[in-house]
Design a protein that fits this description.
Layout: H1 2-6, H2 25-38, E1 52-62, E2 65-73, E3 83-84, E4 87-89, H3 97-109, E5 116-121, E6 126-127, E7 133-141, E8 179-186, E9 196-201, E10 205-211, H4 213-221, E11 228-230, E12 256-257, H5 259-271
Keywords: Hydrolase, Magnesium, Manganese, Metal-binding
Protein name: Nudix hydrolase domain-containing protein
Region (Disordered): 1-23
């Protein structure tokens, strides 16, 4: 086990992604190309006999800093107080898994589908503890709705290296029933040794869980912060007394991006060259 865990380590980021510079059109094009190049046909086998869900991994600039938009779930029957991506079950009314991810994102945080520029997907899709097959998509969040198709083809060479507009989190409309907090996880945090904890996904596959306790707590200590928005009055999350994997906010009282969320983050960051692969 220790040997396997030692093979998982953050490393300085090569192209296509910088951890410190804001996302640009050039960055998004590179991410899209990378995801297309690493996506396998084995990742897209859709079994209609299964129950399906979909999530959006929302990349965004906030205050001109690149990062990922995450949620802390509200007081739900399941997943209460857990860090997650926007998303949920694929309904019969959804045209596709992607449509479900976009619908759920709008319902949970008020981001309209026209604000989301889909960059790709990755896999394979894992099963949740509830038995749903969860399909992950990657998108960049624009602060305002965009006209579909206005992309790199309308920009000059110089414009492709300009920062993409930042998202103002105060414009989000959280569903109080589903989402307690939404926050921006800056990319430097995903390689911070103080935040990272080595876990095994489903007991076999090494991944990083990311401690975000201070980000959520900070909102209530400093209301002027603009990287967190809340629908609740106090920061709270619950750890499972038995510290069972993927149940509750995290281990040892921490609030962590762990379980399926942590596994998908690790998988995506491996694809983008931020983390080393297992071998």
């Amino acid at each position: 086990m220790l040997r396997n865990l030692s093979t998982l380590s953050p490393r300085p980021s090569p192209k296509p992604i910088s951890l410190t510079s804001p996302f640009t059109r050039s960055t998004l094009n590179s991410i899209q190309t990378t995801l297309e190049a690493t996506y396998s046909e084995d990742d897209i086998r859709y079994d209609p006999s299964e129950t399906h869900a979909a999530v959006l991994v929302p990349l965004c600039n906030v205050n001109n800093k690149p990062g990922i938009l995450l949620e802390v779930r509200g007081k739900l029957r399941t997943h209460s107080g857990e860090v997650s991506f926007p998303g949920g079950r694929v309904d019969q009314t959804d045209e596709s898994a992607l449509a479900a991810a976009l619908r759920e994102t709008e319902e949970e945080v008020g981001i309209r589908p026209e604000q989301v520029e889909i960059l790709g997907r990755f896999g394979p899709p894992e099963k949740s503890l509830a038995g749903m097959r969860v399909w992950p998509f990657v998108g960049f969040i624009h602060p305002t709705p965009r006209t579909i198709g206005t992309n790199a083809d309308t920009r000059t060479a110089n414009e492709t290296d300009e920062p993409m507009p930042s998202l103002d989190l105060s414009t989000l409309k959280l569903s109080p029933k589903e989402v307690a907090d939404a926050f921006h996880l800056p990319l430097p945090a995903v390689v911070s040794p103080l935040r990272l904890h080595h876990y095994l996904f489903r007991g076999t596959r090494p991944y990083f869980a990311i401690d975000v306790s201070d980000i959520i707590s900070s909102k209530f200590k400093d209301p002027s912060r603009t990287d967190v928005v809340s629908s609740v009055e106090n920061a709270s999350w619950a750890s499972n007394p038995r510290e069972r994997d993927e149940i509750g906010g995290g281990r040892e009282g921490r609030l962590e991006a762990w379980g399926l969320t942590g596994w998908y983050l690790t998988t995506l960051l491996r694809r983008l060259g931020v983390y080393d692969h297992e071998q």
